[in-house]
Design goal:
This protein is α+β, with helices and mostly antiparallel strands. It has helices at about 10-15, 45-65; strands spanning about 15-20, 25-30, 65-80, 85-95, 100-110, 115-125.
């Protein structure tokens, strides 16, 4: 599943690689290099992009092919900096409904230290060109 899921241009530019993808758990990695702020630390916005990427994939897989997942609320708490290596994001569901899905995301460094905790809520909408009939369960 991970080879066929479209990550989008931003995720590709940031070096995000999808390792695991399901509605129950989505995992991706991202290098710190190239995603830093002027002080050489991981940019908080880069963590937010990684968090939204993994949670959106989980929500989209929950919603199914007749729907799209659109992020409507993202909250990130940055716990510590990272200046090298790779970070890993794991998204797991908090709520999976018919019209919305919320995922909790934990981002850690290579020493398994928590870098960021995030939460994303997605609105589940009919995919363009599809009528709203079948809804996620």
């Amino acid at each position: 599943m991970t080879d066929s899921f479209p990550l989008g241009e931003l995720a590709r530019r940031m070096g995000i690689e999808l390792a695991e993808a399901s509605a129950e758990r989505t995992v991706a990695t991202m290098p710190v290099a190239g995603n830093t702020q002027p002080y050489g630390l991981l940019h908080g916005g880069a963590s937010a992009v990684l968090a939204e990427t993994v949670a959106s994939i989980g929500a989209a897989l929950h919603a199914g092919p007749a729907h799209i997942a659109v992020g409507v609320d993202l909250n990130c708490t940055h716990h510590r900096g990272a200046d090298a290596g790779t970070i890993t994001a794991v998204a797991t569901p908090v709520h999976r409904g018919r019209t919305s899905a919320t995922y909790g995301i934990v981002i850690t460094d290579q020493q398994d230290r928590r870098i960021c905790t995030a939460r994303l809520t997605c609105l589940l909408r009919p995919a363009p060109g599809r009528r709203s009939g079948t809804r996620p369960t």
